[in-house]
Design a protein that fits this description.
This protein is α+β, with helices and mostly antiparallel strands. It folds into two domains: about 220 residues, PmbA/TldD fold (2-Layer Sandwich), CATH 3.30.2290.10; about 220 residues, no CATH class. It has nine helices and 17 strands. The strands form three sheets. The chain has a six-stranded antiparallel sheet with strand order 3-2-1-4-5-6. A five-stranded mixed beta barrel has the order 7-12-13-14-17. Strands 10-9-8-11-16 form a five-stranded mixed sheet, covered by helices on one side. It starts with 13 loop residues before the first helix and ends with a strand. About 45% of the residues are buried. Its EC number is 3.4.24.-. Keywords: Hydrolase, Metalloprotease, Protease. This is Metalloprotease PmbA.
Length: about 450
């Protein structure tokens, strides 16, 4: 952001905060041992943030947050108990541990319960775990935050006379320090910051009104787009949706913009997550080692990416993370497993307890305009509504809005349509992934073209 500078807080330093939390973690683990737990793990986090929202140039909300909490899980044999508290006093920690142990003693045994194998724990180097450049606190007060939000909204409202109203603009900034430790002797510290600025505008009037938005997000303030640029982009997107036209129902190519394409990748990741697989609630059950996408398609997990949204040296079990393909040559190379789901499936953990980290989808085409030109005729999807996904069968049906393409060019906006298919078929029908990567997420993909889908016009 052009006028933004980041400063270090004069409060407790992150290193001192991490050391204090690590000491509390060791205390909790010692209490668990005294209460008879064979194994234990504990997570502690402290965070603070600022959120402001404005509308029509006036302040709506200003919220300062400061949160903390501890969650402890104990294992008595193969029985598991968990408890949590926001009170970090010794008496509260003692009561929380006692409650977790009491729960474990009355819980049914689970053969898959327990810590991840000790040999798999991440090991720090001489200087500790790697620094992935995730800590960029923003020393901004409420007045400056409000001013930036107002600047953002004003730029959008003034960008086009057709902007009739506003849903407002908001700025959010936050920082957190967390510690995960377990009775294997593992202690891992993570610290990170996040910042965002968004604007939502309304164009037209009456039944012809259209709404759209834009936002910018990053781990460092300087990674954000300028406030005025965010507002103007929101205005461009909003007025572009005015005067939508109907299209005939039929089967057409569907081109997802990068922010919409993330949802397709998300459906893939959800289907290969361990929890879905051991519950047999996935359309990709037993598909490891099989081709599920075109032969050129690749998805790579990069947990050690500098300034990546979800970079980490270890997962939520303390297992060392590693860069590895998820899909290679169109073949599903592995599932996404933590230690528990791996045991349930008779497999090995992939260091994905807590989710996937920094996924990159390889491009094989240019930007959206290039793909649309080659597509010729079809639908560009910019927004989707509803959750019409059957996780077991892969059946897919969602409301959508976007733009109709004729002769390779945007012809007019479209809304109130339904796009439908089956995710297995849709994955195999992908013809292009664009180079226009949306950097605002841990899932990094460009536009995605699905060669054929059912597109149903609204009534």
């Amino acid at each position: 952001m052009n006028e933004i500078t980041a400063k270090t807080s004069v409060q407790e330093t992150p290193d001192a905060q991490a050391e204090r939390l690590a000491g509390l973690a060791s205390d909790v683990l010692a209490r668990a041992r005294r209460h008879g737990a064979g194994e234990a793990e504990v997570s502690l986090e402290e965070s603070h943030g600022l959120a402001v929202n404005v509308r029509m140039g006036e302040v709506e909300t200003v919220e300062h947050t400061r949160d903390r909490g501890v969650s402890v899980t104990v294992y008595v044999g193969r029985r598991k108990g968990s408890a949590s508290t926001a009170d970090l006093s010794p008496s509260s920690l003692e009561a929380t541990v006692a409650q977790a142990v009491a729960i474990a003693r009355f819980t049914e045994e689970d053969p898959a319960a327990g810590l991840a194998d000790a040999a798999l724990m991440a090991r720090p180097g001489p200087d500790g775990f790697p620094d992935f450049d995730l800590w960029h606190p923003w020393d901004i007060d409420a007045d400056r935050a409000v001013a930036l939000a107002v600047e953002c909204e004003s730029a959008g409202r003034e960008a086009d006379a057709r902007i009739a109203n506003s849903d407002g603009a908001g700025l959010n900034t936050g920082a957190s320090v967390s510690v995960y430790a377990n009775s294997h002797g593992f202690v891992g510290v993570e610290r990170g910051t996040s910042h965002s600025l968004s604007c939502s505008l309304i164009a037209g009037s009456g039944d012809a009104m259209q709404r759209d938005y834009w936002y910018t997000a990053g781990l460092a303030p300087e990674d954000l787009e300028a406030a005025a640029a965010v507002g103007r982009r929101a205005a461009e997107r909003t007025v572009a949706r005015l005067a939508p036209r109907r299209i005939p129902t039929g089967h057409y190519p569907v081109l997802y913009t990068p922010e919409a394409a993330r949802s397709l990748v998300g459906h893939l990741l959800s289907a290969i997550a361990g929890s879905a697989l051991y519950r047999q609630a996935s359309f990709l059950l037993d598909h490891a080692g099989r081709q599920i996408l075109p032969s050129w398609f690749e998805v790579l997990e990069q947990p050690h990416l500098r300034r990546g949204f979800r970079s980490a040296a270890f997962d939520a079990d303390g297992v060392a993370t590693r860069t590895a393909p998820i899909v290679e040559d169109g073949v599903l190379r592995r599932y996404l497993l933590g230690s528990y789901s791996a045991r349930k499936l008779g497999l090995a953990t992939t260091a994905n307890a807590g989710g996937v980290r920094n996924v990159a989808v390889r491009a094989n085409a240019g930007a959206l305009a290039d793909i649309a030109r080659d597509m010729g005729r079809g639908l560009v999807v910019t927004e989707m509504m509803g959750h019409g996904i059957n996780a077991i069968t892969g059946d897919y049906s969602r409301g959508a809005a976007g733009f109709w393409v004729e002769n390779g060019e945007i012809a007019h906006p479209v809304d109130e349509v339904t796009i439908a298919g089956n995710l297995k078929d849709m994955f195999m029908a992908i013809e292009a992934v664009g180079s226009d990567v949306d950097p605002r997420s841990h899932v990094r993909t460009g536009s995605i073209l699905v060669g054929r889908m059912m597109v149903a016009a609204g009534d």
